[in-house]
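Minutes, project check-in

Agenda point 3 was the complex the collaborators sent over. CS summarized: three entities, 477 residues total, and the question is how they sit relative to each other. Sequences were read into the notes so everyone works from the same version.
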Amino acid sequence: MQELLDRHAIHDLLVDYCFYLDSMNLPALAALFTVDCEVIYGADPRLGSQGAAALEDSLERMWRWARTSHHLSNVRLVFPGPDTVDSTSYVLAWHERLDGSSATIYGQYNDRIIRTTAGWRIAERRMFMHGSDGGFAVPIAPLQRRPAPPGWEPPDLEC
Amino acid sequence: MQELLDRHAIHDLLVDYCFYLDSMNLPALAALFTVDCEVIYGADPRLGSQGAAALEDSLERMWRWARTSHHLSNVRLVFPGPDTVDSTSYVLAWHERLDGSSATIYGQYNDRIIRTTAGWRIAERRMFMHGSDGGFAVPIAPLQRRPAPPGWEPPDLEC
Amino acid sequence: MQELLDRHAIHDLLVDYCFYLDSMNLPALAALFTVDCEVIYGADPRLGSQGAAALEDSLERMWRWARTSHHLSNVRLVFPGPDTVDSTSYVLAWHERLDGSSATIYGQYNDRIIRTTAGWRIAERRMFMHGSDGGFAVPIAPLQRRPAPPGWEPPDLEC
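CS then shared the predicted structure for the full assembly.
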């Protein structure tokens, strides 16, 4: 029963991140993370931050988009212990540029989430990108996929 | 335990709306709402309706699209009382025009959902749009986002 | 209580399918199905398979895409009995071609999922497509939608 309640609380935490990011309520967003969190969206140093305060500063970069919409799904939670969760979730993140064009990324968050006295908080977040549309150019880390075996031939099936 | 069961029932209600809209089963869709519901997709009077019967009539407008697909996510439920829920959910709504072109909107539903003797029903629905692709022209109410502080300068990071 | 635990386990099963497909871990994907499963994505014989081993072979066709991203939502579970579930879920499936262009399909899975001694497994999967963008050409079965009544006139509302 406790795990069922925890699952809902953690789902809310993941969804709140999206909502606060899309409404650019960065103080509320930062409060979803532990004070000493590590967040890495990609290898570029500008895409990583140490600590909730640095994350809040770093995500000001999202104002260079006119609007965003972060659609979260495919939430998968594994509990290695009662106070720790390893979370995988998918995100479809739509971004509108100031010129009205848009770019969408399809990716996933890999999080370590922990129970604190104030509730569940994201302690570590890493993002991986499956791909993107619309000329998205930010170097988020690509997801590794198993390659086709040597000699594999595609079927006669149109794309 | 009751709240956990309620959460699943309310999630089903939100998902049923999408399914009935995409299959254009409007009588079944209208039955998800209270008889005296208020539904406002935008300030244009043609985008609002009072009562489930008026909603059913109003949503006939969706037949001007060849097809639609409403992908619901980011469901966030808050219970101000045992028989009332304030629900926020995201929707990615894809629309195909009769000419084969498509338009997608990225937005959210803000609902008041209440427990009735027949089960949970949507009493109030307001929609807000984060943005759109493909030349979507229906004037759905835009979501308000916090603006950048005065003097904010974008980082040197490509879009 | 058992049903609540079952709901989470079945949701995980549906999400694992997406994750294993996007990472092309086909042995792990096939293990989500019963040995004698029936999977039909469309009427074309190359889009159907009988049994988990045949499914694993058949899905090698996904390597003709450079990358995919399967975003699952709108999960709707109905339990006709304690060990059987009828599941409907939506998928937004983004596909990147080798030339860097992309195609997205918007559709739904209709599954029969059963409890086995090893856990919940997909026994039957049928896919229906609401529509697609980007010139997707694989003949997945279209969802049937109710047509407008004879003589219906579209409102004066721009698309």
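Noted in discussion: Residues 2-22 of chain C form the longest helix (21 residues).
Follow-up: revisit at the next meeting once the mutant set is ready.
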